[in-house]
Design goal:
With 721 residues, the protein is α+β, with helices and mostly antiparallel strands. Helix content is 31%, strand content 28%.
């Protein structure tokens, strides 16, 4: 039976419909937010899987008909998820995942399908609400509800879920999500916003999240079903746990305190393998061996956390607010790459390359966003060999898309405008070694490679990853904020909070947590620690390259830009592109971009070639003016005068009376085709025809008297012919 629930939320209506669609799922809801419509559902396998992780799949699916679009490509149908769809899936997944019960091993799939998209009413936020609701009203174990909102700031005022127009004016683009009690997911881009302002934005967003969670609880109470009590949760046998602990705890503690990552991993593996082999020799089955392995992993987990909380000692010996050793270099890849840099933080190392191209190289977006193209692109590559592992090569993972988007947001805030720097810009991060925080190292390397390429960025951006180790409720129990977390601290910690920005303020945030949520106090402390670390990192970066180079790199395309009259665009292009193609061919395949507003941008490796093409275009659009002097070739001779090429396709008629001071019967008596004449524009008639004079450049005979011009009058009366 169909049930409908409505909420007036920040001036707009949200409608939830349940019970009519998707009745063979565990639960399904149709959520309407303005004209946006999203169908969300949840399904769950009947049996527990014997895996070491919770098999949760959260999917955000775009249907191009939702925005009245036909998909691009040969097939003209949706295929692989767009970057936008992947990122939308991630924000919901990261918000929901920490709230499923420990030891839950039934496969769960949450799918949100965008059926109609209104750009002013976010489909991603609608999908998050639908995902939360369908799980909460089902029998799937879940400690929700959750919700998320976007926060913008327009003219100094915070706005919930800003419209497209408001986003264009906003200096904050923040997505904050969590429960009624706390925030547990953050994604943000910002135009150098202060830490305090960003905290205020986070709290403002959380107040809106609370409203959505409270409303969901009313819906859950009305139509929710009892949670499945027959699910088997994966737990470690206590007697086996104590037995393994007695055997391995001492050696594992010693191994955990090894400072070098690879050596530490080898030492931990040696201890674990020895214990597992002992059990295997005593006849333990495969399931028991796996349990022994899991118990030892838990012991490592607890020891890492104990060392930090109790002893304030990190696995590599650093202080809680200490950054790992830093190194920065530029021009690592030589002259051919437009800009390159390498940034190293401890055992994390990233090489970044920047490439400059014409504006026509912009990325065309085929998704459900209001944007249709993008001129700044960042890609992030994380091969398995960078951590000493093996795996499939060429397969793009969600992690790479998410980290790439974070770096892109952080750097996009300082990229010059298209008017200031009319290039398409691509940076690529190659992670060559990783022990945590590779995305933030990518920000630092990417920033330096942009400067090395000659991109006039507005500020130097550095990034740092902050961690959290807590001992229960953050309001009651001790916790420790960690600066520059490494892989072990990320894996066993409670928070991964990435902060990037310039000396003026924050440009990007990203937060993932494994606990129920974090408080304003924790976030404030983490941001303050991050501010100090980012400044330290920028000092090291500045030693490698302090500011953008004054010109683009040697092998980057050079550029010139100018405007022509809109009415002249067709003259430059010519019929079927004839004129512009002739210019391109004559100027070594120069790249020419012409906008509808008359903006012309020329790209070529050689400045002289650019100047040549510019001159050719200017000659086409140029208009002669009375008094201007030219040296032009005679192109045609008639009895009454000679036609002289002034520039481009512009010709001027030099009448026989203007060829010399004396009488000239025929123009051919004085000039022939191919002669070069110096002429002055003396008249431009109403039809745009140009008349020129040559005689001014010939010595005037002594005593010369100009014959009076005949008066123009009516012809005498006579017979009409």
């Amino acid at each position: 039976m169909k049930k409908v629930f409505e909420l007036d939320f920040e001036g707009r209506k949200i409608v939830v419909e349940a019970g009519e669609i998707g009745k063979q799922t565990k639960a399904a809801v149709l959520v309407r937010y303005g004209d946006t419509v999203v169908l969300s559902n949840v399904t769950m396998s009947q049996h527990t899987v014997d895996w070491d992780f919770f098999p949760l799949s959260v999917e955000y699916q775009e249907r191009m008909y939702a925005a009245g679009k036909i998909p691009g490509g040969f097939l003209r149908r949706e295929s692989r998820p767009s970057y936008h769809a992947i990122l939308a899936s991630r924000i919901t997944d990261r918000t929901m995942r920490p709230l499923f019960p420990e030891g839950f091993r039934n496969e769960v799939q949450v799918v949100s399908q965008v059926m109609a998209a209104d750009y002013d009413n976010s489909p991603e936020i609608t999908a998050m609400l639908g995902s939360s609701l369908c799980v909460c009203i089902s029998d799937v174990p879940f400690n929700g509800p959750i919700a998320g909102v976007y926060v913008g700031r327009v003219d100094g005022k915070f706005v919930i879920n800003p419209t497209v127009e408001q986003k264009a004016k906003s200096d904050i683009d923040l997505c904050v999500a969590g429960t009624e009690e706390a925030i547990n997911m953050v994604e943000a881009g910002a135009k150098e916003v202060s830490e305090e302002d960003m905290l205020d934005a986070l709290m403002f967003g959380h107040e809106a999240v609370k409203k959505l969670c409270k409303w969901q609880k009313k819906i859950i109470k009305a139509i929710g079903v009892e949670k499945n009590k027959n699910i088997e949760f994966k737990v470690m046998p206590q007697d086996l746990y104590e037995e393994v602990k007695a055997k391995a705890d001492k050696d594992l503690r010693k191994a955990v305190s090894t400072k070098d990552k690879l050596e530490r991993e080898a030492n931990i593996e040696k201890v674990e393998k020895a214990i597992e082999e002992e059990y295997a020799a005593n006849g333990a089955d495969a399931k028991t061996i796996q349990q022994v392995h899991n118990i030892q992993e838990d012991l490592v987990h607890k020891e890492v956390r104990r060392l930090i909380i109790e002893d304030k000692v990190r696995p590599d010996g650093r202080k809680t607010d200490e950054v790992r050793p830093l190194d920065a270099q530029v021009d690592l890849l030589g002259r051919r790459v437009h800009g390159s840099a390498m940034f190293t933080r401890g055992q994390t190392q990233v090489i970044s390359a920047t490439t400059l191209g014409p504006l026509s190289d912009k990325q065309v977006l085929d998704d459900l966003t209001a944007e249709t193209e993008k001129r700044f692109i960042h890609h992030y590559n994380f091969p398995q060999w960078c951590v000493g592992g093996t795996g499939k090569i060429g397969v793009l993972a969600r992690r790479e898309v998410g980290h790439g988007a974070l770096v892109e947001r952080a750097l996009a805030q300082v990229i010059p405008s298209e008017e200031e720097f009319p290039y398409t810009i691509r940076t690529v991060a190659e992670v060559v070694e990783s022990n945590g925080s590779s995305s933030q190292a990518s920000i630092c390397a990417g920033c330096m490679s942009l400067m090395a390429a000659g991109v006039p960025i507005k500020g130097m951006v550095s990034g740092i990853a902050m961690g959290l180790i807590s001992d229960g409720d953050l309001r009651k129990n001790p916790y420790t904020i960690l600066t520059d977390i490494q892989g072990l601290e990320d894996h066993f910690g409670d928070m991964d909070f990435k902060v990037a920005g310039t000396a003026k303020g924050i440009t990007a945030l990203q937060m993932d947590i494994k606990i129920a949520g974090v408080t304003r106090e924790v976030l404030g402390e983490a941001l303050a620690q991050a501010h100090k670390a980012r400044a330290e990192i920028r000092e090291v970066m500045a030693k490698a390259i302090a500011e953008p180079r004054p010109d683009v790199a040697e092998f980057a395309p050079k550029m010139d830009t100018f405007k022509i009259d809109v009415d002249k665009i067709r003259d430059v292009i010519g019929t079927g592109g004839k004129v512009i193609n002739e210019i391109i061919a004559e100027c070594d395949n120069i790249k020419i971009d012409i906008d509808d507003d008359g903006q012309v941008v020329l790209y070529h490796m050689n400045r002289e070639t650019i100047n040549k093409a510019k001159e050719m275009i200017m000659n086409i659009v140029r208009e002669a003016k009375v008094g201007e002097v030219y040296e032009g070739e005679v192109t045609r001779v008639e009895d009454y005068g000679a036609f002289v090429k002034l520039f481009g396709n512009c010709e001027g008629l030099c009448h026989v009376s203007r060829l010399d001071w004396g009488y000239v019967e025929k123009a051919s008596d004085k000039v022939k085709v191919g002669d070069v004449l110096k002429v002055r524009v003396c008249e431009i008639d109403d039809h745009g025809k140009v008349k020129v004079s040559h005689r001014e450049f010939i010595e005037k005979p002594a005593g010369f008297v100009e014959k009076p011009a005949e008066k123009k009058g009516k012809k005498p009366f006579g017979k009409r012919k």
